[in-house]
Amino acid sequence: MIVKRVLPLLLAIFLSSCAELTQLAQQTLDMNAPLSQNEIIAGLKEALITGANNSADLLGTVDAYYKDELVKIMLPPEADIIVDNIKKIPGGEDLVEDVLLHINRAAEDAAKEAAPIFVNSIKSMSFSDAMGILNGNENAATKYLYTTTYDQLFQLYQPKIKASVEKDLVGNISTKESWDSLTGKYNKIANSVAGQFAGLKPVDTELEDYLTQKALDGLFLKIAAEEKQIRENPAARVTTLLKRVFGSVDK
User: Fold this and answer.
1) Termini Cα distance of the chain
2) Average model confidence (pLDDT) for the chain?
3) pLDDT above 50: residue 202
4) How far apart are the C-alpha atoms of 227 and 231, rounded to whole Å?
5) CA distance 112 to 116
6) Which residues contact 135 (CB under 8 A, 6 or more apart)?
7) Which of 28, 99, 168, 229 is the 20 to 30 A CA-CA neighbour of 134?
8) What pLDDT does residue 138 have?
């Protein structure tokens, strides 16, 4: 009687173990199976969306630009003379820092809206694009996003940066007005006969364009770091598809 009761139980355990082993074997086989075009494209899209969203979310938080020395946006080198002179007056140093704070806050605000631009670009990725990224160098995906999204991102960031530098500061003078005044006077000298003889070069930097470029430099720097993490650290490949796609490169 006991044998009759135990046998079905042992049989059930055996069959269950066989099913688990079969499933495990199937998973192993699937992981080693050749990648299809659809899997490669889906895996690369997943990686790009993850990296871009993470970077945009990260830089869209308060102080993400301002307190990160790797991406903090500073005034152009040509503005050093403005900064040096303002710092000589009481409260001048705080004023300069306030300008930088507003510029970096504008970039943080823009970053919050960057993710959809990346997603739209990623959706149009071709198989050729995917293979180029998969077999490319450590920042191939970042370069792809840079090429396909930079102009749109520039249009997103620039108005916010522009509004920041046009905000009135002390004496109803904005950062932009101070910049234009300084470079205008300098350029008159640089363009004069004496200035040309002295080898002076006119300054033609558009402040908001320069600052926007620096803001985007920071964004793509973070995306490159995300990409490197996925390529080099298996633990960062959080889905089976990512493990298969990037694991194929590891092999």
Assistant:
1) 55
2) 81
3) yes
4) 6
5) 10
6) 249
7) 28
8) 87
Amino acid, res. 54:
N
User: Is the pTM above the cut of 0.90?
Assistant: no
Binning the chain into helix, strand and coil, the percentages to the nearest 5 are 75, 0, 25
What's the chain's length in residues? Answer: 251
For 73, the token pair is 């946006």
Determine contact, residues 161/212, Cβ cutoff 8 Å.
Answer: yes
Pair of tokens at residue 72: 């903090």
pLDDT of amino acid 150: 96
Tokens read off for 124: 């149009």
Q: Find the helix packing angle between 175-191 and 207-232, rounded to 10°.
A: 110
Q: Write 235-238 long-range contacts (CB < 8 A, 24+).
A: 238/50
Q: How far apart are CA 215 and CA 226, in angstroms?
A: 17
- pLDDT greater than 70 at residue 18: no
